[in-house]
Amino acid sequence: MAAMAPRSFSIPFMFIFFFLVLLLSSITTTSSSNNQTTYIVFMNPSLKPTPIKSHSHWYATDLQSLSIDPSRHLLYSYSSLFPAFAASLLPHHLSLLDAHPSVLLVLPDPLLLPLTTRTPLFLGLPPFSPPVTRSTSSDVIIGVLDTGVWPESPSFSDSGLPPIPSRWRGQCESSVDFPPSLCNRKLIGARSFSRGFHAAATGGESENFSARDQDGHGTHTASTAAGSPALNASLFGYARGTARGMAPLARVAAYKVCWSTGCYGSDILAAMEQALEDGVDVLSLSLGGSSASFSRDPIAVGALAAVARGVFVACSAGNSGPAHSTLTNTAPWITTVGAGTLDRDFPAYATLGNGQRFAGVSLYSGNGMGENAAPVVYGKGFQSKANNNSKLCLSGSLDPAEVKAKVVFCDRGVNARVEKGQVVKDAGGVGMILANTAANGEELIADSHLLPVVALGWEEGDKVRKYATSDSNPTALLTFGGTVVDIRPSPVVAAFSSRGPNTIVQDILKPDLIGPGVNVLAGWSGSIGPTGLEKDGRRSEFNILSGTSMSCPHISGIAALLKSAHPSWSPSAIKSALMTTAYVMDNTGSSLVDADGSIATPLAYGSGYVNPQKALNPGLIYDIKLDDYIAFLCSIEPNLQLIQSITKRSNITCSRKLANLGNLNYPSFSIVFSPKSRKAVKYTRVLTNVGPTGSVYSVEVDRPASVGVKVKPAKLVFRQEGQKLKYTVTFTSKMGKGSEAEMKFGSITWSDGKNQVRSPISYAWSLF
Ligand SMILES: *[C@@H]1O[C@H](CO)[C@@H](O)[C@H](O)[C@H]1NC(C)=O
Ligand SMILES: *[C@@H]1O[C@H](CO)[C@@H](O)[C@H](O)[C@H]1NC(C)=O
Ligand SMILES: *[C@@H]1O[C@H](CO)[C@@H](O)[C@H](O)[C@H]1NC(C)=O
Ligand SMILES: *[C@@H]1O[C@H](CO)[C@@H](O)[C@H](O)[C@H]1NC(C)=O
Ligand SMILES: *[C@@H]1O[C@H](CO)[C@@H](O)[C@H](O)[C@H]1NC(C)=O
């Protein structure tokens, strides 16, 4: 994702207030004051000395042979994941390591920046009724890598849960603010990983190095995946109801990898290795990453090791939409989750002095403005003339003499939305109208501001802005509509949700699917207010957030339900079930739309919006074995030894490669017609019957006029459960020259009259 790195600097600030973390690989690798930099070093497994006491002994011996003192420089020794270590090294160490025969790859420790505590929040509950859980779902363990956990949250009550599965090998690590007694039958593990953070970062002096969540994000994601039902949950009255995770009987193990300055790859890898040893069944990572290749991305290589052990891995797709090619975590063994809305909203209104009323959103929960309108001001800074800082309501920009007792109109952008509210309040304002600019379009984000605030879209906002600047005596009254459900249309793809095409391998369609990621109510940390602002002294056991960080744990929890219903299913089978049963129509019967009302495409929603009930019984699945992923890797990664290292198989020869990367047995299709394959692209897929004996499936093709699609055979008769049948599909381009820029979309659906096994297809015409 080379294009992503420079872009990171120019991302409008609004993006960094979403929850997903951007991994800025080499750029943000931090040197600490002692000039040491952390690296992850991959080792050649075939050069492992035998007999060997331990992997850490091997690495230490090799470091010593280079006169690098392991006691001072070695941070983590990875072994069960794959042979690698993390070390904090001086510049001259690098050339030494590069020349060492055992060293395959030296990767700067990437930093993921958790920007969530300054983040604005959303609200809501899943629109679907969760599947009826079986008792076996209490056997499933979800590992969440995040900012830690608030163990006292009602979402982690273990009332009614049976004893912890005896295979569990994890623990609740003891620390100053996290005695092991805080774990229970729901929260069965809590660990923290901070060596990478310590080695790289200054700061953190005030942090306790425990799994306790000082941020809220980790408590929110963990409780979304598997929180126990919590009655009468709300954010100051908003979205009141029973809050519960997707898999309310599953167990949670929290692995804290994110600290005040971010989450380091070395800590993430250590946590993934520990989680696999502890015995988790599902890993949930609401963290982003961008990298030019899968084999150099710690989350991707860690996830491959997890999938090799039968552990399902869900990751956020990213919050950099609606621009295209903004996805993170696109390795085919990862389930990449985008975000959509729920059918719930929090309306708020600005009634102007001219009688016009504009509708927006808000999570404001105080006493309000009463019944009297107040004057509206825009751009009232300390200079007599309007200036841009005061239009944006940046800190210190508003002149209290101009703003006191007024409603301040603020443009969205640059600083956090909740911070603008704070700035207006500090300057004596009684309310704020927060208006989108062109950059945000009509996407509305509701926040629990400290004063009355109505957030308006671009079009409405523009009208109010004109009124505020042209009327001789502009006034406004802000009022609040509470929680409203049955919003139509819903779901809608969230504007912020990152979009394809997949920039690493365009032949794999990503994201895989979307789930609830807007206005999600879940547990929160007791050490911070819902806005994340220092001045926010309020505390709430629940908070309302938006982001692909919120949709990811929904999928993790639903995957846990599938795992308990079908213990023998591989991670790929679970992913297939989630994808082929996802839906693409909203509650008005129209195709899913984007936040701006235009028809969305699989580049935004992948296979569609998750449907947990249907995923339990998908009829057929597209399974992928580890050997297939290895063949895939062999086709894209030139370094055989590196493949041997990250797959932990020193005997791999890469004798099998995929003629076309899209020929992986994936539950979706991304067809790229290149000048070479201008005429036809042919794929083989294998379906496994997980439904009843004697199921007869026939195929239905939905195709654009510019493509021919031929499926052979067109009918599949499954005589047994578990039977595998093959089909081929040939795509032929009929596109005329010169019109190649546009992408097209379609689908293939296998149906037996009861199950619809649907695969979305994207078509692209590459010029090279
Ligand atoms: C770190 O490197 C800079 C120059 O790159 C040098 O001036 C400084 O003395 C070094 N600090 C330490 C602690 O080695
Ligand atoms: C660290 O833990 C101690 C003991 O629980 C607590 O008093 C203190 O506030 C904690 N520090 C932070 C920064 O949370
Ligand atoms: C629900 O919680 C609110 C406070 O958030 C409280 O006032 C109310 O009494 C509670 N209702 C019930 C039924 O417990
Ligand atoms: C202020 O904003 C306007 C457009 O909104 C822009 O043209 C101008 O350059 C900005 N001025 C400064 C000093 O940033
Ligand atoms: C390669 O090693 C794995 C175990 O690491 C073993 O299961 C497999 O059979 C071996 N394959 C060959 C071709 O030797």
Ligands, ions, cofactors: 2-acetamido-2-deoxy-beta-D-glucopyranose
Helix content: 10-25%
Helix-strand category: alpha/beta
Quote the distance from N terminus to C terminus: 18 Å
* Helix count, DSSP H or I runs of 4 or more residues: 20
Q: What percent of residues are in strands?
A: 15-25%
Overall 3D geometry?
A: globular
Strand order of the largest sheet: 7-10-6-13-14-15-25
C-alpha Rg (nearest Å)? 26 Å
Region (Disordered): 204-225
Domain Subtilisin-like protease fibronectin type-III: 663-762
Protein name: Subtilisin-like protease
Domain PA: 374-463
What's the helix and strand layout?
Elements: H1 4-10, H2 13-16, H3 25-28, E1 37-43, H4 55-65, H5 70-73, E2 74-78, E3 84-89, H6 91-99, E4 103-108, E5 111-112, E6 141-146, E7 187-192, H7 195-200, H8 217-226, E8 230-235, E9 238-243, E10 251-256, E11 258-259, E12 262-264, H9 265-278, E13 282-285, H10 298-308, E14 312-316, E15 335-340, E16 344-345, E17 347-352, E18 357-361, E19 374-378, H11 388-392, H12 400-403, E20 407-411, H13 417-426, E21 431-435, E22 453-456, H14 458-470, E23 475-480, E24 484-485, E25 513-516, E26 520-523, E27 542-545, H15 548-565, H16 571-580, H17 602-605, H18 612-616, E28 620-621, H19 626-636, H20 640-647, E29 669-673, E30 680-689, E31 695-702, E32 707-712, E33 715-718, E34 724-733, E35 744-751, E36 756-765
Parallel strand pairs: 6-10, 6-13, 7-10, 13-14, 14-15, 15-25, 19-20, 20-21, 21-22, 29-36
Antiparallel strand pairs: 1-3, 1-4, 2-3, 5-12, 8-9, 11-12, 16-24, 17-18, 17-23, 19-23, 26-27, 28-30, 30-34, 31-33, 31-35, 32-34, 35-36
One 2-acetamido-2-deoxy-beta-D-glucopyranose is lined by residues 176-177, 206-208, 214.
